């Protein structure tokens, strides 16, 4: 990955042009046009009709040859017919105008808008369209407004996601999508320290789905909550006491990832220590839990207090490569990069890419995948100034950033499955969980959904 490429920033949240849902142009339904046309003037209209009764005296008591009483009855019927016809025409005009108003109104139950990236060039991927559609008003979810979010999937061909968040009572709950729809809110999974962040990972063991959630206990010890699809029961275990794993800083955020290598199962959990330095907790299924292998505490970066953290596998030149994103002491979004080498110190290096300043305590999430073209793509997400921001990279395009959507809270999480299918979770309104999804089709669009 080139570190010299500049970051391009674009804001594509401007309001789109209104969609014209009116009738075709030949149907002008404005009130000024909807008039009953005047009869067309003809030469004969201005000529005086001859008096056919000249030389004849009109019979007394008759009008146009009819008795006065009969004439009045006929006249009344004609007047009623004229009134009825006029009412029918007026009703038709009103219905047409009402239809026009409904088509032009802003209260539609299915608002749709789109926002496009620039036209594709030799240096940029295809155009991406953001489409929003509500089939019904979303339902508020009982969650904390500033809750962290963590999502896991099992990288199968079928969508299967668990989304974790904090309930208003401080406990961690989840909602699951098994490929068809989002289920109901789960019972309590665990209840960490009130200001604890959390991270979650998932993997498959044969047909059994495994999930782990990492939090801080009341005494700031690193805690693991365990679940699998066989027992479907949650339980907690302290993984730090007696293992040299340092306590977490108050309010520390967490991030974790897992992989299999040479027949062993590996897990890494990253968090901020009480001295401000990032810490690493290591799991090897042949050895159990231990503190990270860094020679000294200072070998990991010191981060801004409350920094967001996001670890992502990034197999650029080696399948074991990874990037750990955090906020440095200058408030900049940067990464600490892992590339396997002979020693620990040689393996971990500071990246030279500066992604600019982010808000203190900004939650971070990142995913990597393979585009349909076979190109590696890296995506970072965070909330900045009330906007959901995507910063993405390909070797061909370099780094590009854009605002995807308004956001009401800092929590964010993303998962990638089957290559380049991506889900990004956030709150577009307080207490409303929402998601953007993208598939790997080159002509794909970002689809917005509310999680009910």
From TrEMBL:
One Pfam family of this chain: Fungal_lectin
Keywords: Membrane, Transmembrane, Transmembrane helix
Low complexity composition-biased segments: 125-136
Membrane-spanning segments: 70-93
Region (Disordered): 32-57, 96-142
Skewed-composition ranges (Basic and acidic residues): 39-51
Polar residues composition-biased segments: 99-122
Family under the similarity heading: Belongs to the fungal fucose-specific lectin family.
Protein name: Uncharacterized protein
Annotated source species: Tuber borchii
